[in-house]
């Protein structure tokens, strides 16, 4: 047996998230189905982070244990079976103790706001037909870098034992007709980025003021959080690791 690392890109529009679910089409479920067809045995894959329904990924990372074989052929075989909205970009042999989730140092997400109606990008952004106070958005993004307890951004009855997350990067940038929010942290809670974007948009459009913004974050009560930003605007961009895990 050998452990391999897969780099995966997917359009999450048609999927009920990453995690395998009964009677639901998921990214993990589709890849495992393809692996079982090819290898003639069930294979369980472990990911660096589970994305919600409708969320996309440019460089998701997962690992699994398989019998030795030609990894280039395996990559082509998987891509030949799964739908074209999932692509295995790379398969590499790694150390036997490599773990896609626990060895990950940082995750980076990008949320895209469309400032004008878009045809193709409507599936990958959130169009907002009103003016946003970009100064307040930038101020809010910077504020999040000093927050460590993200209880206000985690769903009720979560199984999390800690709500601490450490934000390394949090910034808004306009690129053409899109306003992009990029955030990097050691970990993210379920729905956390969409919650952060949602409350910043409420602030930026004047629905809440700065004092209320801070109160909601410090309340540590997700019931006070405004609605989450739609999943379609969110993309997992990359996962960073401390060391190279490729098998020598």
UniProtKB/TrEMBL annotation:
<dbReference type="InterPro" id="IPR020103">
    <property type="entry name" value="PsdUridine_synth_cat_dom_sf"/>
</dbReference>
<dbReference type="InterPro" id="IPR020094">
    <property type="entry name" value="TruA/RsuA/RluB/E/F_N"/>
</dbReference>
<feature type="active site" description="Nucleophile">
    <location>
        <position position="52"/>
    </location>
</feature>
<dbReference type="Pfam" id="PF01416">
    <property type="entry name" value="PseudoU_synth_1"/>
</dbReference>
<feature type="domain" description="Pseudouridine synthase I TruA alpha/beta">
    <location>
        <begin position="147"/>
        <end position="242"/>
    </location>
</feature>
<dbReference type="GO" id="GO:0160147">
    <property type="term" value="F:tRNA pseudouridine(38-40) synthase activity"/>
</dbReference>
<dbReference type="InterPro" id="IPR020095">
    <property type="entry name" value="PsdUridine_synth_TruA_C"/>
</dbReference>
<feature type="binding site">
    <location>
        <position position="109"/>
    </location>
    <ligand>
        <name>substrate</name>
    </ligand>
</feature>
<comment type="similarity">
    <text>Belongs to the tRNA pseudouridine synthase TruA family.</text>
</comment>
<dbReference type="GO" id="GO:0003723">
    <property type="term" value="F:RNA binding"/>
</dbReference>
<protein>
    <recommendedName>
        <fullName>tRNA pseudouridine synthase A</fullName>
        <ecNumber>5.4.99.12</ecNumber>
    </recommendedName>
</protein>
<keyword id="KW-0819">tRNA processing</keyword>
<comment type="subunit">
    <text>Homodimer.</text>
</comment>
<dbReference type="InterPro" id="IPR001406">
    <property type="entry name" value="PsdUridine_synth_TruA"/>
</dbReference>
<comment type="function">
    <text>Formation of pseudouridine at positions 38, 39 and 40 in the anticodon stem and loop of transfer RNAs.</text>
</comment>
<dbReference type="InterPro" id="IPR020097">
    <property type="entry name" value="PsdUridine_synth_TruA_a/b_dom"/>
</dbReference>
<feature type="domain" description="Pseudouridine synthase I TruA alpha/beta">
    <location>
        <begin position="8"/>
        <end position="103"/>
    </location>
</feature>
<keyword id="KW-0413">Isomerase</keyword>
<dbReference type="GO" id="GO:0031119">
    <property type="term" value="P:tRNA pseudouridine synthesis"/>
</dbReference>
């Amino acid at each position: 047996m050998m452990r391999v690392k897969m780099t995966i890109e997917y359009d999450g529009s048609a999927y009920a998230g990453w995690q395998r679910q009964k009677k639901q089409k998921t990214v993990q479920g589709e890849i495992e189905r393809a692996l079982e067809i090819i290898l003639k045995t069930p294979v369980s894959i472990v990911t660096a982070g589970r994305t919600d329904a409708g969320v996309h990924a440019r460089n998701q990372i997962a690992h699994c244990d398989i019998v030795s074989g030609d990894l280039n052929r395996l990559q082509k075989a998987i891509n030949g079976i799964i739908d074209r909205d999932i692509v295995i970009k790379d398969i590499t042999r790694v150390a036997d103790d490599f773990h896609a989730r626990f060895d990950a140092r940082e995750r980076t997400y990008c949320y895209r706001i469309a400032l004008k109606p878009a045809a193709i990008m409507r599936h990958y952004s959130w169009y907002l037909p009103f003016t946003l106070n970009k100064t307040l958005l930038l101020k809010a993004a910077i504020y999040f870098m000093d927050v460590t307890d993200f209880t206000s951004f985690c769903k009720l009855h979560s199984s999390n034992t800690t709500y601490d997350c450490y934000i390394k990067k949090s910034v808004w940038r306009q690129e053409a007709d899109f306003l992009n929010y990029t955030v990097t942290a050691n970990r993210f809670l379920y729905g956390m980025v969409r919650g952060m974007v949602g409350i910043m948009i409420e602030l930026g459009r004047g629905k809440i003021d700065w004092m209320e913004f801070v109160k909601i974050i410090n309340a540590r009560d997700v019931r006070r959080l405004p609605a989450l930003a739609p999943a379609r605007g969110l993309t997992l961009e990359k996962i960073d690791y401390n060391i190279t895990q490729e098998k020598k």
